[in-house]
Design goal:
By secondary structure, this protein is an all-alpha fold. The chain has 2 domains: about 10-205, MFS general substrate transporter like domains (Growth Hormone, Chain: A, Up-down Bundle); about 215-405, Growth Hormone, Chain: A, CATH 1.20.1250. The protein contains 18 helices and no strands. Keywords: Membrane, Transmembrane, Transmembrane helix. GO terms for molecular function: transmembrane transporter activity. It is a multi-pass membrane protein.
Amino acid sequence: MPTNAQSCTNPRQLFTVLAAGAVVLLVVHGLGRFIYTPLLPYLVDDGQFSAANGAAVATWNYLGYLMGAMLAIRWHRIDQIRVLLPISLAVHVITTLFVTQTDTLTLIAGSRWLNGVANGMVFVHAPALILEWLVLRNRSSMSGLVYIGVGLGLLVSSGLVTGSADWLNSAERWWPAAILSIPLAWWGAVKLMRLDVTERKQEDTSARVTTPLLDRASIPLFLSYAGAGLGYILPMTFLPLLAKLELPDNHWMLDGTWLVVALCTIPAPWIWNRLGAKIGDLLALKLNFLIQLLGVLFAVVWPGPMGLFLCAALVGSTFLGTVLLTQRIGRALHPHQGPRLSAATVALYGFTQMVGPWLTKQWLDMGGTLVSAFGIGVAALAFGLVFVFFVPRPEDWHASRGLGS
């Protein structure tokens, strides 16, 4: 029961659980998904594939992420998570090992698709399991700290790619991520599978669903989130490649762009969590969109080191804030839709992230430049910012419907 669970919970337990969640997100996001970003210019230079084909590989990975999130909507019960979470982490390890063995584009794309499926499921399941454990201990406000693992994953991926750049080639470049994933995935899975989470709590939560997921309050929030997903994914996929195209050889920003993104991402969950608490989540989300929009815009209108640096810093410091604030506003609008809302937002984000690289590939195939393709991100973030202004304050929304605050 919550009282007993809370009484036997100590800071070391809390740290271990949050650390395990952060580690599995580091594995699937940092060593699975986003390590591809700093790897991409090296793989193109190695002749493994072209920039356009690299965009296609990214699209397959993001399609897998979307499918994984949708599967997580279907299989969201605690007993199902206990089975699927370790399986998903094993799939990540196997597919990462597989891409160390092939230079065939079709096999790489297929493996990255399956890796994306595992990523999407872990990204929904791990935080959901931890949230249920924290709720039983009246510590749910700490759940967002697991996302620090994403920022740490970006930093680790930057170090692995840069550190091994001179002595690995083509498919071999995936070896550091594969080797590191094995112990981290195993440790995180073992810790999370031992969590004491009662089924009754999950069932009670599901039974209280009384409001539709989509209505006049949540639709503009979902539309704004769609704009955010499409807007941020272009720099998060192609920024190091853009640096390779714009900067001279041996410039520190060739690898430095991803390092800047990583360093700015690590404190972002804490910063936006605090800012939302101080000025309100909706106002914080508007500010978040504006800063992120300016970041992508700088890469378009200010080519070169300064534009790349500002894009890396501003996007890195905001994109996780968009996730946290949007999910928190959504939960406030629909407090009984927690698991479905989380999975639905991840699925929506996954869909728009898939569209971004696909649009970029079409643009490059038509003769467009990569820097001009970033204009798609600027337009998407502007679209998202506009729709944030149509999202009502949760307390006003509930009051207007006679539900109180």
